[in-house]
Amino acid sequence: xxxxxxxxxxxxxxxxxxxxxxxxxxKQPSDTDICINEQGSxxxxxxxxxxxxxxxxDKYGVPKYKxxxxxxxxxxxxxxxxxxxxxxxxxxxxEKLESKVAYIAMMGGYNEIL
Length: 114
What we know:
The protein is α+β, with helices and mostly antiparallel strands. The protein has 3 helices and 5 strands, in the order βββββααα. A 3-stranded antiparallel sheet has the order 2-1-3, with no helix packed on it. Strands 4-5 form a two-stranded antiparallel sheet. The model has no long low-confidence stretch (mean pLDDT about 90).
């Protein structure tokens, strides 16, 4: 009996970062998708002996891998740091309340505002 295999594909962006990976058991590839394994299992694996359906992104939504010269490699910490979104801290509820109280005090108290 002939062995059946699934093909595993990756999708890269314009900076060669891997932004998707899948098995043809679940999705049909487009012309631009890259086959990385022609004899894969049902579940996608980024590396032949790797885990099934690995996370391709870190906790900040930054791609963890890139495709260079026909190989999948991990991105460096510096590359990933450069892609991290800038997160502006938002004031807590206590800080918002303190700000309002300070404003009211600056305006002369409640009697002046009302």
